[in-house]
Amino acid sequence: MRAFKVVMPMALSVLVLLLAGDPASAQQARGKPTAEREDFLPEPMPPGFQVIGNEIEGPVFADANGRTLYRWPLRGLRNGDVGDRKNAASNCGAEIYNVNSGLQSPWPPGLALPDAGVRRSCQDLWPAVIATADAKPVGKWSIIARKDGAKQWAYDGYPIYTSNLDKQPGDVLGGSNRRARGDAPGVREPLGPHANVPPAFSVVMVGSGRMLVNYSGFSVYSWDGDGPDKSNCAAACLASWAPVLAAESSQPQGEWTIVQRQPGIRQWAFRKKPLYTYIADAKPRSMMGSDEPGWHNVYTQHAPAWPAEFTQQETHAGIVLADAKGKTIYLYACGDDALDQQACDHPASPQGYRYSVCGGNDAARCLKTFPYVVAARDAKSPSRSWTTIDIDPMTGLFAQAGQAGALHVWAYRGRPVYTFADEKPGDVDGDAWGEFYGARNGYKAFWLRDDFYSNAG
Amino acid sequence: MRVYLNFLPAVVSLALVACSAPPAGRAPAPQASAKDAVGPGPMDVTSPQRLRVMSSQQYTNTLFNIFGPDLKFDTRFPPLVRTGGLLGNGGAIAGVSDSQLEQYQRTAALVAAEVTNPTHRTFLIPCKPVDEKSADAACAAKFLPAIGRLLYRHPLVPEQTEALVKEAGEAATRFKDFYAGLAYALEGMLISPEMLLIAETSEPDPKRPGHQRLDAYSFATRLSLFLWNAGPDSTLLDAAASGELYTPKGRAKIVDMMLASPRLESGVRAFFDDMFGFDDFATLAKDAETYPSFTGATAADAREQTLRTLVDHLVANNGDYRDLFTTRKTFVSTALAPIYGVPAGRGWVPYEFPEGSPRTGILTHISFLAVHSHPGRSSPTLRGKALRELLLCQQVPRPPANVDFSAVENPKSTIKTQRERVNLHLANPVCAGCHKITDPMGLALENFDGSGAYRTTERGAPIDASGNLDGKSFTDVVGLGRALHDHPSLPTCLVERVYSYGSGGTANEQSKPMLTYLNQEFAAHGYRLPSLLRTIAMSNAFSEVKPPETRTASVPTQSSQTK
Amino acid sequence: MTTSSTRLIATALGLALLPHVALADGVTNRAIGYVLTDKHWAVYQTPNGKAECPNGMNDGPREQFKILFPEDGTKRTMMDTQFVREGENWFPAENEPIAPNGKPLPYYEPQGKTGVGLNLDGKVGPNDFTSPAGETGIDNQLYRAVGCVAGFRGPDGAYTFFQNDYMQRQIFNRVLIEITDVDDLNNDPDVTVTTYRGFSPLLNSANGKDFIPGGTQKIDERWGKRYIHSFKGRIVNGTLTTDPADTKIPFADTFDTNVDLTLKAARFNLKLTPTTAEGLIGTYLDLKEWHHHLAINWTTHHASYGQQSIPSIIRAMRRLADAYPDPVTGKMTAISAALDVKFVQAYILRDAKKGPVAAVPAATAPAER
């Protein structure tokens, strides 16, 4: 038994009860409710701290109130660095920046930020996790003095914070561990324990879920032709699929078992399914093996279920999530150019950035270029990560309760999702739209699979 | 990291003791019984009881097998000395240098830290301590002897286990960390001479009074290194412990199990990598302007191509060894395909050159053609020399120190072809003696340039690829392949090398009856490698040994060293 | 992997690796394949650029920003400056903005009559170029639009270098042509050219600078169906020319973008050898698609390296567009252009398991003026 309490928020507990059958699917993403939760390696934590399962990020650390913990690691931007250095005091303080820093090429510094005058400080948005006077370091948790003398908890040498976007225990709206793309802003990363997987494996975050790969980053697969803890892959099957072998001293544990293939030759199985790599895979995180009938990528957690009417569409590079009409779903990403790197991708943050690229600073044109994905008033989300929200279409901000003309739209991680102009199914013309290919101020398609780049994670 | 200042003498002293009985403190092998098997083959032949240093690859394979292939460490141990045509025989030289010991230490520290870190310990250590900040003898006693048995290739005696548990406990107390203590003890095992040095021990053969045979654990180790190029696994050690390994049925069962294991591929690859001198790839360089298609990837894949062809032909298809020199079947990769002028699929794809193709046999692989050439041109002499030494086990004399190369290296020369060039050697009596041995068959490979690409002309002159091999004449490389296929020394050379490789030392006069027996068996079974491996593994000589005559250390101990 | 399993996997993948001996001219089974190794928009350049760009190079984002928003002590906001300029990348105004000096931002087109490309419409018009070799009627108005933009000039203009570099490095961009029905690589009156996307890396030569022929390219049949198009053509004295047809090629100029480009009424003009194919692809580019292509591929930061103002370039292209008139407004919707290309020979494999790959019937509408 674990020494640490795993808190599963109420919504997730309900989901577990609602577990539906999972029809075998050749596709890597299923979009159906699931009870899968990633197991983790327990580790010593400060008193009161806990681990909470999240359907996108997997297990994350939270404080005693269930607020997810984040770090802000140093990141090099084009003209300088932002974030916290390891084993150094926090750079997220009480200063209020009203002008840009000029760290994101090519524009000069000193321009008034869109929210100048009403802007909040970094520590308002990212409250430091303060240690009590008698707190003692434990495991990877240490204590670093803030510039104002307060004692701040640090994990692995990085000062830790909570996010003002997270309202409920289990919310992870302040940041993601999805692989940061080139020229992304200095983002905050949720912290979590190590996945409880044998050292020959690791878990990577991709659009379709938390996927298992081997120690070299190559995908592992399971086969419908195998039985529980029994491999039926022999002879010709082994020409395409290499069993992932367990070491002589490997011990089965939890969801991990070991299948004896022949004397002395043992194969790892996860949730009773023997695991393989695909010999034809030419690059890490591939999903090409899942094109073979009966073979699937393996996940500790699939991506959270998306709205039932949504679809998947094949493009010229992979598979994207799409609305009911097959139009590609886009996510908007934005980080500002102030030293504290505040996010501008949320309906509670300034919309000027978005309007510049989606409409040439014209809100009406923006609505035509990247329309919101309107949800039925009574739409029900099958997962916690997909919600419906009310948006004022002319400001891009949250609408007031009962506001006339407000749009009821689908949101992912608390942010609206979009489609692009008049695309037909399979088009991704809005992908990488904006500054820095959609990484700094722009749109990216909701990639579930990308056989060429790292768009899917 | 542990401090091993006093360790070297201990290593050396143990290293030099290939014992007729287990060293003090080592678990004895199970009691020999008169019912035990006596292997077939000449009964008056024994193999030497040897002491070997584990090779880098054996060390790596062993640790990967025990702890998993995700371990990150570097085992670039110093190269062994090629002896009797094999690097493997160079391991049978006692003594470990300071720099070697440093390498071992670094690797041991890395591996021990990794195995006991939080992500590994959960799946590799079968128990959890009561308190991670303290010693836990019970948990340490579950882990250390189990791993020690695999690392040392025999069970630990209680005293050894007690010492290790004590060492782990003291370190845990010192570091206030159970796992740090465990790592400390594990590091000690990984640097131990019992791990690094393969000191064979023997016992009286119960069926043959007056004869010695390897004890069961040493025999299991010899088998494992021979067939898998790694230390024995639990199954093999269990068979040694139970005595099954020395029963007629048990020995056959175990050998057959080993031959059926996917680990056999590692063993076969290691052997041929050694026999064919593929360590030369480490220093292979080609002139980029002369051979733009020959890249670093080409070199790596060339080695792999031949090893794949060997394993596929000899193991997967149980083919005739001699056919390797005439077969048109092989594998190609994207890096090799441009030189072969053929398409390749993704990764490695089997390919059969068409009938009539000059690409027949592994002599026409890039691995042979390019390695045995100069950086900017082919070399009939190097190719012929390699053919004789590597494949026929013949010795070609080294060129005299005062040889005059001016005629062949004159940049203003009007010489167009390599045939013209080597003819200059043949005209010089000082050179001709050796070049007559190497060049006639090397010239048959002249349709392939220094990168291994096919050509019909050289500097505009047509290439004459005729030649002869020990009296058999041919007009091209296809004929050379056939002549080599039928050469009586081809299979006998393999037999000598395999036996020498398996028994850990160069074959000698005393080995002759055994080699004769193996040659007969090899021929009788159609020159199939698995059959040869089985014959050797089952033979009396493979397990019956002649203990070393002296057990006196010849390396200075620490106390004898003066400055 | 065991070698036996390797053998089986090729069977499983159905790769058509049949015994294969190329003829002396590189043609096998009446076909020869090539893979694209270099592509650049054809820009005529004199050594110092003075002849065609007497006013020097055009301003890029940084320079234009300084002109529009001089450092005169005025406190400025992002909304009024940066967002306006970034917004223009995606929604360029009809005319250049007016600077504080009361004048619109300047933009210079190349001068002179010399240009590189093909005569796409068979006519010799007043705006057409004459090639350095003396061929008249060259249609390449893209050159007129970008010829004095530093980023578009070779060999090391930021855009021209990186778009080629990423083409070489990213498999997404792998372009193949296969010439079939070939009886003679020097002269053949009737051959078929088919374009594909490949699914394999290029093979670097040992010196690391070039690419070697003889590599193998597997056709991307999973995602790349939209890139399969066929052309009728002929080979005369070793030069392949084709009839015009629409095609589409992947054209992502940087990482994590998925842009491709329609080449309208494209035609090949390539000098063939058994190991190389070099020459030009003449074509028309749809203005909207080109704009999307440029803006997605080349963010403001990168455009700044090459003094490459996306809105100014788009405005120039609109002015210079010379084909495909809008049926309602009569405005030209496409611009003539040429790609300077190099291919090396490659074996082209299809997945035998999936059967032959069908070419999408190509539209061959002529480019009307």
Can you lay out the helices and strands and say which pair or pack?
The complex is a heterotrimer of chains A (457), B (563) and C (369).
Chain A: E1 6-7, H1 10-17, E2 50-54, E3 58-62, E4 70-71, E5 75-77, E6 80-82, H2 122-125, E7 141-145, E8 151-155, E9 158-161, E10 189-190, E11 201-206, E12 209-214, E13 220-223, H3 237-240, E14 241-243, E15 245-246, E16 256-262, E17 265-270, E18 273-274, E19 276-278, E20 295-297, E21 299-302, E22 311-314, E23 318-322, E24 330-334, H4 352-359, H5 363-369, E25 386-391, E26 407-412, E27 415-416, E28 433-435, E29 441-445, E30 447-450
Parallel strand pairs in A: 1-2
Antiparallel strand pairs in A: 2-3, 4-9, 4-10, 5-6, 7-8, 8-9, 11-12, 12-21, 13-19, 13-20, 14-19, 15-17, 16-17, 17-18, 22-23, 23-30, 24-29, 25-26, 26-27, 28-29
Chain B: H1 7-15, E1 47-48, E2 51-53, H2 56-67, H3 98-115, H4 118-124, H5 137-152, H6 158-175, H7 178-190, H8 193-196, E3 197-199, E4 202-204, E5 212-214, H9 216-228, H10 234-242, H11 248-260, H12 264-275, H13 296-316, E6 329-332, H14 337-340, E7 349-352, H15 366-371, H16 380-391, H17 406-409, H18 418-427, H19 429-442, E8 457-458, E9 461-462, E10 467-469, E11 472-474, H20 477-485, H21 489-503, H22 512-524, H23 529-538, H24 540-543, E12 544-546
Parallel strand pairs in B: 1-12
Antiparallel strand pairs in B: 2-3, 4-5, 5-12, 6-7, 8-9, 10-11
Helix pairs in contact in B: 3-7, 5-6, 5-7, 6-7, 9-10, 9-12, 11-23, 12-13, 16-19, 18-19, 21-22, 21-23
Chain C: H1 3-13, E1 31-41, H2 61-68, H3 82-90, H4 141-146, H5 158-169, E2 175-180, E3 188-197, E4 215-218, E5 229-236, E6 239-242, E7 245-250, E8 260-272, E9 276-286, H6 287-297, H7 300-305, H8 310-320, E10 323-325, E11 332-349
Parallel strand pairs in C: 4-11
Antiparallel strand pairs in C: 1-2, 1-11, 2-3, 3-5, 5-6, 6-8, 7-8, 8-9, 9-11, 10-11
